[in-house]
Structures are given as C-alpha cells and as structure tokens.
Design a protein that fits this description.
The protein is α+β, with helices and mostly antiparallel strands and about 160 residues long. It has helices at about 5-30, 35-45, 50-55, and strands at about 60-65, 70-85, 100-110, 120-125, 130-140, 145-160. It contains 3 helices and 6 strands.
Length: about 160
C-alpha cells in the first residue's frame, strides 16, 4: 500500500527529530571540533551567493587537501550561473504543475599538478577561508587538468507552471 502524504510527512518529521536528538547526544559525549577562524569564514563563504562571492576571485589560487594531506593547488578559471527551469525551454511537464526555480553556479578550476580523482576536497583560500567542496575532473587539454564544482540553490520562486 502506498503511504499517504500525511503519513509520509509524519514519518519524515519523526526521523528528523530523532536524528537531531542523536546528533546532539553524540556531540555531548564527544569533544566537538572547535572551528578555526578560516573554517568559520569558509562556512560564511558557502552560505553566500556563489556567483558574487567567487567571481571576484577568478584567477585566485585554492590550496587543495584530502584527509589532511596536500594534493596541490587549483586555480579558479571561470564562474557561470544559470537559473532553471529556463523560461525559454519546454519542460515536458503537464500544464499547471508547479516547479521550484533553482539557480546553479558552476566553478571551473584548472591545475597543472597531478590528476585529482572525484572527491570532496578541503579547499583553502586566503580570503574565502577553508571549506569542503565536491570537485569533479572534467577535461585534460594540453597538460592542464580542469575540474568543476557546482552549487545549486532554490531561489524560493516558482518556475514554469
């Protein structure tokens, strides 16, 4: 039997409360990691508008590490954003279906160091702080590796209906 929307939401709420209580309990039992100033700035960076924040650092260097070990430097090559669904495209959805608008910002990095496999790396920038970011390899033209990272944010607006 397919659960009703009400039972689904009730179960989701119970799971959220239970998970939150479990996390608080674990945090109380273990010493919680104190954030460094660079990590606090990094959290603010991730919470900000990606296009505006990263665009002014195009050409800037980000030190990349994995599990505490340095893996090289990434240079921010390009920042682009787009909003979806695009009003000029047909979504294929039935008429009257509400779609939430999403803004996607793509960061393109380059590196001349060794290849980095897809992973969540800790990036450190002098002004933007320290933060974790999923980085995916993309292109390998002429000895330069290209990587991408994507931010997606709901705008709070309805898209096509």
């Amino acid at each position: 039997m397919v659960p009703s929307r009400r039972s689904f939401l009730q179960n989701a709420a119970i799971l959220a409360v239970t998970t939150s209580a479990s996390i608080r309990s674990l945090a109380a039992q273990k010493k919680v990691h104190e954030l460094t100033t660079s990590e606090e700035i990094g959290l603010q960076t991730l919470a900000s508008e990606p296009q505006e924040t990263f665009e002014k650092w195009t050409g800037g260097k980000f030190r990349a590490s994995l599990s505490g070990g340095s893996v090289g430097t990434l240079v921010l090559a390009n920042v682009t954003s787009a909003t979806y669904p695009r009003s000029d495209k047909h979504t294929g959805l039935p008429r009257g279906v509400e779609v939430l608008e999403v803004k996607a910002t793509l960061l393109e990095f380059t590196s001349r160091s060794s290849y980095l496999p897809p992973n969540t790396y800790t990036l450190d920038h002098d002004w933007l702080g320290t933060f974790d970011l999923l980085v995916e390899p993309c292109l390998y033209p002429q000895g330069t590796f290209t990587y991408i990272a994507v931010f997606t944010r709901f705008t709070g607006k309805s898209g096509l209906t």
